[in-house]
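Morning F.,

Quick status update on the modeling queue. The single chain you submitted on Monday has been processed. Sequence for confirmation:
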Amino acid sequence: VQLQASGGGLLRAGDSLRLSCAASGRAFSSSGMGWFRQAPGKEREFVAACNWSGGSTYYADSVKGRFTISKDNAKNTGYLQMNSLKLEDTAVYYCAASWGPSGTVVSGTLYDYWGQGTLVTVSS
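Structure tokens below.
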């Protein structure tokens, strides 16, 4: 299975950005999906997760109301729409797929595959 995250870039505070996660090699339609991020000098943290259909979602408090996770199973692609970006959103963002527990998966250890990461830099 390969996950290809893309869409990162240099943005200003308040901007919006959509990250994509293209999956290949296994039925993405049956996997849960998560987004995580790692800021410089910090540990990786959970951002958002959805179940196999995208109908059930869960967010970290820090992004709730600003970020939206979604899946397009027909395109084998997941998304993270990020609005009202803040300086503290600067990080490398990783997508991950899980064929384990049903529902939304928060723990990174329960994800089976990870993308390579895409850098999001938010400036003032």
